[in-house]
Amino acid sequence: MTAKKKVAAITANVACAYAMKQIDPDVVPAYPITPQTTIMEEFSNYVADGAVNTRLMRVESEHSAMSAAIGASAAGARVMTATSSQGLALMWEMLYIASALRLPIVMQNVNRALSAPINIHCDHSDSMGARDAGWIQLFSENAQEAYDNTIQAVKIAEDMRVRLPVMVLYDGFIVSHAIDRVELLDDEVVKDFIGDFKPVYSLLDVDNPVTVGPFDSLNGYYFEFKRMQEEVMRRAKSVIIKVGEEFMKVSGRSYGLFETYQIEDAEYVLVLLGSAAGTARVAVDNLRQQGIRIGLLKLRVFRPFPFEEIAKALNSAKIVAVLDRSISPGSQGGPVFQEVCSALYSFDCSPVIVNYIYGLGGREIELAHFFKVVSDLEDLSEKRSKESFVRYLNLRE
Amino acid sequence: MKWDVRRIREWKFYEHPQGATILEAGNSLYYQTGSWRTFRPVWIGEKCTHCLYCFIFCPDAAVKVSKEKIAGFDYEHCKGCGICATECPREAIEMVEEQRESDR
Fold this sequence. Notes:
The complex is a heterodimer of chains A (397) and B (104).
Chain A: E1 6-10, H1 12-23, E2 27-30, H2 37-48, E3 55-58, H3 62-74, E4 80-83, H4 85-90, H5 92-100, E5 106-111, H6 125-129, E6 136-139, H7 143-158, E7 166-171, E8 180-184, H8 187-194, H9 222-251, E9 258-261, E10 268-272, H10 276-289, E11 294-299, E12 301-303, H11 307-314, E13 319-324, H12 335-346, E14 352-357, H13 367-383, E15 390-392
Parallel strand pairs in A: 2-3, 4-5, 5-7, 6-7, 10-11, 10-13, 13-14, 14-15
Antiparallel strand pairs in A: 1-8, 6-12, 9-11
Chain B: E1 39-43, H1 53-57, E2 63-66, E3 69-73, H2 83-87, E4 93-97
Antiparallel strand pairs in B: 1-4, 2-3
């Protein structure tokens, strides 16, 4: 650990641009979109000042940004980019190609709602839609976590057992544009932590020519490759834990698959991800003072989803309330709810589990809304109801 | 590591090179891609001046050359695109429809 702590009052976007400066990627293809734009604005200053060796490519769309990222990564470069919302949606087909070609690209996606109606504020619909694209997804509660996750993402993506792209996620405006206290690592510490980039195969290695992205027809091996991707994603879990432990040694800040707060004896457990965890923690403190045994489980790693660990952590709770900041029309609840249900069912766990959809398009979530959730849970508990439900927080209904 | 793609049919899902990357140049030698063909080029020796245009234009290196002279086609890899017949200045290559075994 460094002797003196370097602390700054900066937004998450500025913190992530600073992390990128310290990482000094070879290539950054980018296209602006709110609320991501200020990452690249800030980073382009570093490029202009010669503070990095990065080739910054200003492309004509996010589809091109991800395409260029894939090309550069296949050529053997360390590549980063960033996007949000519609930009991520426009990258769609390229996201699957990046992961299937096993290219360790790191990208911040600053979570923002998807149109229509057009809305620039936070929800998780953009990255939740990309949950099957084969990218590792790390959620961050605040600017510190966004900065820390960006640095760890590079090491996770480039680990030889993984070689998968990683999305670093944090809430648009709430985190991206809010000034926060961020502890920054020294450049040398970051450099040592991530190490040099080692390409597995490089299109520029003329002595070892390779074909990247070949056609794979009927009677081919597509199924095998998809199964391999799934296997690697599973394996990534232990690498994420290991990188978290190593990061603890250089930063003093600990990262796992998820974070628990007051769940040891909790009857009720709230499960969520992103910035609302801060409010939830205060709600838990408040309710604990009233004698209500409540706890919080904040997810960090959504892909690979830590099924077994979550089932274990929630097994002794009576009622679990999962809060989703995205909506999946026609499904039984939001994506986090579905995964948690699946975890509890697969491991034969007993808690009743309910779902709340909240915060779409930047809709506020305040302490009162958490208190409402808990009074619902107390009702359920009194009625001894085993029935699951999906409800909406702070919706005009 | 050496990848012997001739055994690829037997590879388990975890035995493939990552990212579906092909690590060996020229391994199409092991695949008989000529089965795609509907028209086959037939060389007419008496018209041929051995200018080697067909050899130069063939996208699949399926024109065989021996001692700077045309020595026929590699029908295991020729896909029947007909570029050789189109480019031949002497009309010394004819594209003939492939027939089913039963029609022969």
